[in-house]
Amino acid sequence: MRYDSKYFAVNGPDNLFTLSRTPNATKFLAVGYVAISGALLFSRLSEYNKSDDPELKFSSIVSPIVQLIPSKIWKFPFSLLLSNFVDVEVWKFIVNFANLVIGGSFIERNWNGDSKELLRFVLVLGSLTNLVLVITTILLELITSHVRLDEPLDGNYTAFIGFPIIYKQLMPETTIFRLKNMGFLSKNFRFKLLPIFIMSYLTIFHLFKMHWIQLLLIWINFFACWTYLRFFQVLRNGEQTTMGDASDTFQLLYFFPDLAKPILKPIFDKAYHLVCTKLQLIRPFDNDDIDKSNAIAEQRGAKKVTGTVEERRKQLALQVLQERMA
């Protein structure tokens, strides 16, 4: 798809908008999303219209069956799963539906038609993330009175936040839109910038609304999605199987602005060393993993990260020297 004018150009890969044959998992997620969100809306409207209470607010009507309410989670544990299909905000429903249908189709095709993997990413990872959030909310309620356990949490952020991370992975240098002939305002907005743009918007939005738990939720979702894609996702392409994405461009550091990188780099390096090397909770990448992932990333159009090869060689030489001296 392409639109071009004097000052504005929109660009996107043609297969991103190929909807003639919607893959199975995408179809299931989209239908489930519309059905469950629609059923919730109908249920809330029905209860609101039947009520004789003039002070009843529509926003206060909730359903613990499909909405993530920490105080009700023991009675309705399946809400951890069903809340992945629910949105009550109109704007988010529209955006998320388009994201599911268009983005889900694109991702599923690029994951070699692996329907189970897309369902695993959206539903299994989403449900586990919701469980972490509920536990965190309950623990915070023990510390502060500002946290309420009877209010619903938005449990449907995995596709909203996770899909842009996948877009960055699959087509990092592809331009979404371009401003031109506007002097210093002329810029290319590429898919690799989409995750941090969305996270910045959501962070500012929830800070402004003072939704502290929701703010925590979006960042838990972000780190959960990236961690799964970085270290655990298994994709098969014929006889070749890849686990995770060890490419330099998919490092957590490169999701953040250049201004923040000098501050974040030592933090992320220490976290990686602690989790992967010291505690051995996650298998660390070796040079072969990184080289293979870099080759795949370059095929997708990712630019090489300068200095990383030399840095790895220095680290390897230092490691060998330390082993000899031990």
From TrEMBL:
<dbReference type="GO" id="GO:0006890">
    <property type="term" value="P:retrograde vesicle-mediated transport, Golgi to endoplasmic reticulum"/>
</dbReference>
<feature type="transmembrane region" description="Helical">
    <location>
        <begin position="191"/>
        <end position="208"/>
    </location>
</feature>
<dbReference type="GO" id="GO:0005794">
    <property type="term" value="C:Golgi apparatus"/>
</dbReference>
<dbReference type="Pfam" id="PF08551">
    <property type="entry name" value="DUF1751"/>
</dbReference>
<protein>
    <submittedName>
        <fullName>Uncharacterized protein</fullName>
    </submittedName>
</protein>
<dbReference type="GO" id="GO:0016020">
    <property type="term" value="C:membrane"/>
</dbReference>
<keyword id="KW-1133">Transmembrane helix</keyword>
<feature type="transmembrane region" description="Helical">
    <location>
        <begin position="119"/>
        <end position="143"/>
    </location>
</feature>
<keyword id="KW-0472">Membrane</keyword>
<feature type="transmembrane region" description="Helical">
    <location>
        <begin position="214"/>
        <end position="232"/>
    </location>
</feature>
<dbReference type="InterPro" id="IPR013861">
    <property type="entry name" value="TMEM115/Pdh1/Rbl19"/>
</dbReference>
<keyword id="KW-0812">Transmembrane</keyword>
<feature type="transmembrane region" description="Helical">
    <location>
        <begin position="155"/>
        <end position="171"/>
    </location>
</feature>
